[in-house]
Amino acid sequence: METLQINTESKKYPVFIGNTVLDGLAPFIQDLSPKVTSILIISDETVNRLYFQGTAEKLESISRSLHSFVIPSGDREKSFDNYYKCLTFALERGLDRHSLIIALGGGMIGDLAGFVAGTYMRGIRFIQLPTTLLAHDSAVGGKTGINHPLGKNMVGVFHQPEAVFYSTSFLKSLAEEEWRSGFAEVIKHSLIADEAFYHWLVNEVTEIQKIPDEKLAYILKTAIAIKAQVVAQDERESGLRAILNFGHTLGHAIESKAGYGAISHGDAVSIGMRFALKLSESISGKNLHYIAINKWFRKFCYPVIPPQLEAEALLETMKRDKKSTMGHVKMVLLQEIGQACVQEVNDTLLLDSLEEFIMADKEQNSE
């Protein structure tokens, strides 16, 4: 088992990574102070079917008041409606300020359940039990929230968990698309902060869905450690933490315009990273290995930009990104592989670059 410590201004908490980490879940909860009065597990239909019973059995010895709320699967379900339903359920079951919420699922559940915990009775405790590779990013750092029709993750709070129990046994059930989606965030961490890790991934990972356990543990520990270092310095994204959004400005716009759930978060971010990397080369005049990295993405079957999306509509959505100020888009760009920065980019350059990028993707798709 690997253990990392997340240190933020508001809270310090552990991340446990390994095949049997859930064995420590009940003892950890039992040691919390004040004592936990009741537990609500929030999951989606798929995860509930696969993992709720086993998780509940781990908690039998410590909780006589265990509740479960299940929502439909899919990112489009990270909605106001399901947020309201979770709050209503918690109130009906009598959860109090000493209750605990467990987010059992991928990034969508982690964001939604964390938002419920962060706002129920002005904030109660919660624990992240991520079940996807993608959630290695979202489960750490305290960002919680839901989607709005006009923008992804536009409503939420910063609310740190008590702990993250990352059981790698959950990952065995993932489909290829979910592995690919999660690996995009792994690539992101390497590109923004660790060139050596980037080269390791290129050399050591040949098939995303067949990563050996020891390599998977190393990948998770390294990627989470990168995020932990950034979050420790900037918990509420007032500066440095914005670099964690590399690829997300365009990625979120793609998810919003295509319709939530039409394209996976990781696939959308992979497109956003390629665009940001290409734009970084154009602005800096440096060779940042876009051609090689683009081929690397194609090797893992990351998609090109959806053909129905147009540059002007994407730009308007990007202007509503959380990093934008007064409608001016701020992009996370690379100065070097492993070194990221945030830079305002004017509309004309962005529009021209987007149109060029979309055209290149169309040509790539026709090959």
TrEMBL record:
Cite the binding residues for Zn(2+): 185, 248, 265
Q: Which reaction does it catalyse?
A: 7-phospho-2-dehydro-3-deoxy-D-arabino-heptonate = 3-dehydroquinate + phosphate
- Please give the SUPFAM superfamilies that the UniProt record associates with this protein: Dehydroquinate synthase-like
The subcellular localization recorded is: Cytoplasm
Q: Which GO terms describe its molecular function?
A: 3-dehydroquinate synthase activity
Q: What family does the entry list?
A: Belongs to the sugar phosphate cyclases superfamily. Dehydroquinate synthase family.
What is the name listed in the Swiss-Prot or TrEMBL entry for this protein?
Answer: 3-dehydroquinate synthase
Species of provenance = Fictibacillus terranigra
